[in-house]
């Protein structure tokens, strides 16, 4: 059983985690025509904006209520109302996603009531724009909690209730009047709730695989449509792709919900409670067994066998496993990541014969930590990671771990958020057969490039010492 060591320091020396409001903002960025709005000071938003721009290398429409000293002391409903009205007037977004920060949350204000009053008093001016609140104080949780809270809030606020139940009654009526011999129509829509750690390429690949079974995937949020590196033909003040508000409204018409990551279980449970759509949770989509389970589920839902290209992807992964396992056996791996990504990567390396000697994560709230295949997990920062990772063959974390890699002289595999010192991080594939194959190649190539082959001088010296003994 893994032993989880609590955080002991009162301050992060070299922070590992990103904040809740940043996670919520990333989720809102996956909705078409959306603008995330940080309720707090301008500095909080600027820091998050810099990380997003450096990671995605794209223009990010992130705004702030810009609370000043007076609003911090007396409360900021006036700033919140002014910001919402300004965004509506200047950008006319389909959705404004409000992410509260520590500055606003420490006053214990009733933000839900304030927003309700703003929408009631300004109903005519705000017509056509959804306003969704995610309570995401910086001092609690981490990026994955903020992501999950934003998706939960969108489902709670936007998704229509009881749609599957009403659809079932309609299907019963159709069945009664159907002529003998007519085939019963199949329900084709599948709702997918991806975790924050899935890249733009991962989500795009998920859609392609689901569509190959004749299914219609609705992905919430869909950052592959808004942060995929395309250049729009004109300047856009909002996101220019992603899940539409109409699709969020109609999530209840899906035949099945699939969530990826333990932190996405709560949004999936809420969707089931509100609409009756059953859900299946995947702790990870990386690895042969997880990919097989996902493909089998799609085949069951669609009623058709896996297409030939899926079988080819699987065969390529099997070949990569054969080619790559020589490079992983006995390797010592140190990983620092948020809980679900820590589980995803640690099970990947363990499955190839490596050993997890160091596991550091940003928050201890996730139940998935109990399943991480490591002797112990430290809740901490990159300072703890550097202290514990000596002797590893590979460090696995985001770009802020590059200094630790340099000081320890250990190669670094960049994963997660942010990755700002390499191009194309959002297009790295990590899930299903192709993503697992690519991860094998990337890690194995790092091992080969950093192989420490003994020189003839060292071998001679070792031989002489043995003979002298």
Automatic annotation (TrEMBL):
Signal peptide: none annotated. Gene3D superfamilies: 6.10.250.1090, Nitrogenase molybdenum iron protein domain (3.40.50.1980). Coiled coil: none annotated. One of its GO terms (biological process) is protein-containing complex assembly. Keywords: Nitrogen fixation. Residues 19-447 form the Nitrogenase/oxidoreductase component domain. Pathway: Cofactor biosynthesis; Fe-Mo cofactor biosynthesis. GO terms for molecular function: nitrogenase activity. This protein may play a role in the biosynthesis of the prosthetic group of nitrogenase (FeMo cofactor). NCBIfam families: nifN. Belongs to the NifD/NifK/NifE/NifN family. This is Nitrogenase iron-molybdenum cofactor biosynthesis protein NifN.
């Amino acid at each position: 059983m893994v032993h989880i060591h609590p955080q002991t320091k009162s301050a992060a020396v070299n922070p590992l985690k990103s904040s809740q409001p940043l996670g919520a903002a990333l989720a809102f960025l996956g909705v078409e025509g959306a603008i995330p709005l940080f309720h707090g000071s301008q500095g909080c938003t600027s820091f998050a904006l810099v990380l997003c721009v450096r990671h995605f290398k794209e223009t990010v429409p992130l705004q702030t209520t810009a609370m000043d000293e007076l609003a911090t002391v007396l409360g900021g409903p006036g700033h919140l109302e002014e910001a919402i009205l300004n965004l509506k007037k200047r950008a006319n977004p389909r959705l404004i996603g409000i992410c509260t920060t520590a500055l606003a949350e420490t006053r214990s204000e009733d933000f839900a009531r304030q927003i309700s009053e703003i929408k009631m008093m300004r109903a005519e001016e705000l017509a056509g724009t959804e306003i969704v609140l995610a309570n995401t104080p910086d001092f609690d949780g981490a990026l994955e909690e903020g992501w999950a809270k934003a998706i939960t809030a969108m489902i709670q606020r936007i998704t229509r209730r009881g749609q599957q139940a009403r659809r079932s009654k309609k299907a019963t009526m159709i069945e009664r009047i159907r002529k003998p011999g007519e085939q019963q129509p199949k329900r084709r829509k599948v709702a997918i709730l991806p975790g924050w750690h899935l890249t733009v390429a991962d989500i795009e690949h998920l859609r392609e695989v689901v569509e190959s079974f004749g299914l219609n995937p609705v992905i919430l949020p869909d950052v592959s449509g808004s942060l995929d590196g395309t250049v729009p033909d004109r300047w856009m003040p909002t996101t220019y792709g992603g899940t539409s508000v109409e699709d969020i409204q109609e999530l209840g018409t899906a035949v099945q919900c699939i969530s990826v990551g333990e932190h996405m279980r709560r949004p999936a449970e809420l969707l089931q409670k509100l609409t009756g759509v059953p859900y299946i949770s995947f702790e990870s989509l990386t690895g042969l067994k997880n990919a097989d389970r996902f493909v089998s589920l799609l085949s069951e839902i669609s009623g058709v066998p896996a297409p030939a290209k899926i079988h080819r992807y699987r065969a390529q992964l099997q070949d990569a496993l054969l080619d790559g396992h020589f490079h992983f056996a006995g390797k010592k791996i140190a990983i620092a990541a948020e809980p679900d990504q820590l589980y995803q990567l640690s099970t990947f390396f363990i499955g190839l014969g490596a050993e997890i000697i160091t596991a550091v994560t940003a928050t201890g709230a996730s139940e998935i930590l109990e399943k991480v295949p490591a002797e112990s997990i430290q809740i901490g920062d990159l300072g703890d990671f550097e202290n514990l990772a000596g002797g590893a063959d590979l460090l696995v974390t985001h770009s802020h771990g590059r200094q630790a890699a340099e000081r320890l002289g250990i190669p670094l595999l960049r994963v997660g958020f942010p990755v700002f010192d390499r191009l194309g991080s959002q297009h790295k594939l990590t899930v299903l057969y192709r993503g697992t194959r690519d991860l094998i190649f990337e890690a194995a190539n790092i091992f080969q490039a950093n192989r420490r082959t003994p020189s003839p001088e060292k071998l001679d010296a070792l031989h002489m010492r043995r003979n002298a003994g």
